[in-house]
TrEMBL record:
InterPro entries, A to Z: P-loop_NTPase, Small_GTP-bd, Small_GTPase
Keywords per UniProt: Nucleotide-binding
Name of this chain's protein: Uncharacterized protein
Family designation: Belongs to the small GTPase superfamily. Rab family.
């Protein structure tokens, strides 16, 4: 099951709630898998979102990399377990074990390579067949900085996403355009599942019906909430230098 689709900006779709003094935010935990063909920029999107720099020489992910991301959105503290999966064919058989108990999936394709768009359709079918929980689904067309070589139109991507009831975003990891928006849309899809009592919370070792917990937070203004990205990272099964740089420089509340 995918969250309702939208191409509007996150700020228009769902306004942020500013906590007053003494207010507590509910915490939502969820597992997100990022999937797609090799070379579409999955790892670059994650690294960019975590505050890292873009590199044209990112080594292919081996198996999967794990990141922990926290953000504050619409009155919730959202903790995402983000699994960046390998796109290489030789690791394809390993993918289902990373899909297990996922609450959301971000399927990425390269707008300059129509083959990766066709493969995205196969990835959607695969993840939907392997995950029997309600999911927030997001389609992401990456590499808009290379739009002069575009093979997949925005309308084609949008139409595909809407046919799935999924969210859609075009991004450029190279120029850091649309990256934060793509992850915010996934978080919004997860809050929609939560609000409709459809979300299962997942930890690395188990899955259980979600229960909202509370944590005191300092008073923040609207701009601070809109810009905030509190995070920590960890990774497994990876040889990407950029991820190591992010891990060493990251912090968490």
């Amino acid at each position: 099951m995918a969250a309702a689709s939208s191409t509007q900006s996150p700020s228009r779709r769902q306004s942020l709630t500013v906590p007053q003094t003494g207010d507590r935010l509910k915490t939502i935990e969820a597992k997100v898998v990022i999937i797609g063909a090799q070379g579409v920029g999955k790892t670059s999107l994650v690294v960019r979102n975590m505050g890292g720099v873009f590199s044209e020489n990112v080594s292919p992910t081996i198996g999967a990399s794990f990141f922990s991301l926290q953000m504050i959105l619409a009155g919730f503290r959202i903790k995402l377990q983000v699994w960046d999966t390998a796109g290489q064919e030789r690791f394809r058989s390993m993918a289902p074990m990373y899909y297990r108990k996922a609450n959301a999936a971000m399927i990425v394709y390269d707008i300059t390579n129509e083959k990766t768009f066709d493969e995205a359709k196969l990835w959607v079918n695969e993840v939907q067949s392997k995950v029997d929980l309600p999911m927030a689904l997001s389609i992401v067309g990456n590499k808009t900085d290379l739009s002069k070589n575009r093979q997949v139109s925005m309308n084609k991507g949008t139409t595909f996403a809407h046919s799935l009831g999924a969210m859609f975003t075009e991004t450029s990891a190279a120029e850091n355009i649309g990256v934060k928006e793509a992850f915010l849309k996934v978080a919004q899809g997860i809050t929609e599942l939560y609000n409709n009592n459809l979300l299962m919370s997942t930890t690395i070792s188990s899955s259980f019906p979600i229960s909202a917990t509370t944590s005191p937070l300092p008073v923040l203004n609207e701009k601070a909430l809109a810009d905030i990205y509190l995070y920590q990272t960890d990774s497994i099964g990876t040889n990407n230098d950029e991820e190591e740089k992010v891990k060493k420089s990251s912090w968490c509340c």
